[in-house]
């Protein structure tokens, strides 16, 4: 895979970009909490600044990813992100620390233009039989930074302060843009893509998803899974204190167990990608996650809870890689940006809804009930994959039948 210039270049670019994002995010978080004495309103605003662009700009970024040349879009997005952080550095230097929130919002917004363009380049330049391995490689990269990102980001801020953290972020974002500039020149965009109206292209994107049975199925599964994950996302602290009877800081061990196993799971997928079709991979990931989630709500034993966290981490890449591979394989290159921009917010939107409902359900019922509901939703997500799985089975049967 690394012989593929596009895979190699985008991998290096994302490595620099992820590192910059983690350094920036932790610097902003720690600096703002220090200045505001842990004011929950400002801490919440940080999350809003980082996640709101997904809802506001994902579909817009996807449409422009289809309109514009992907290499140029990605390089300019990273370069503008570097400039926005540089402007924040100047503002902080002059005492305007609230600019940190605006800078995080602008940078996260630009990412919504860059990510669909990367998917489009993979669709154009990665052979179909390698897509699943490539997605696994990038999921492994996410797992690495899930484990190491908070450590690196906190260390740099605590050792060198907010100004050095921001300047390092500028250099990493600019480095990512420079790496992307080394990609071959983009193919010429079809002239029709540049003459149709923005709203017309948006309608065409949603019409394309509705007309594609696999994408409709994937969107439903993604939405249900997002709700399931959101319900339990804030609940792990209560598992730590109520179920296990441990202090708050024991939570880090549960998170580290899940993050470390994500690395192993992502690496394992690269080894079995050719033998496991992405629809089945996604279904397996959802079912195993459902069992593990339900078990977490029932367990009051430390070793069992840690084991369930490890199992969940191992199979989480199955879900992400399965979804991304199915999305790319079932989407034409001309619609890649719009499809990615429309389906991804479904997960995030339902995820936020789940986070909002999780606490209410815990108060109304029990922690065990919340985890059971989440597990049930994951099973429903797996069942919704029926049309994709049945179609793949039928195709495989036809291919294996003897010629007559």
The largest β sheet comes out as: none
- Head-to-tail CA distance between termini: 38 Å
Helix-strand topology string: HHHHHHHHHHHHHHH
Instruction: Round the mean pLDDT to the nearest integer and report it.
Output: 84
Give the tally of structural domains.
2
Low-confidence stretches: 190-194, 394-404
User: Considering DSSP H and I runs of 4 or more, what fraction of the residues is helical?
Assistant: over 70%
CATH superfamily caption of the largest domain: MFS general substrate transporter like domains
Number of strands: 0
Give the radius of gyration.
22 Å
Number of helical stretches of at least 4 residues: 15
What is the CATH-assigned architecture of the largest domain? Up-down Bundle
In what range is the share of β-strand residues? under 5%
Q: What's the CATH first level of the largest domain?
A: Mainly Alpha
The fold-level CATH name of the largest domain is Growth Hormone, Chain: A
Helical/strand content category? mainly alpha
> Which descriptor suits the 3D outline?
globular
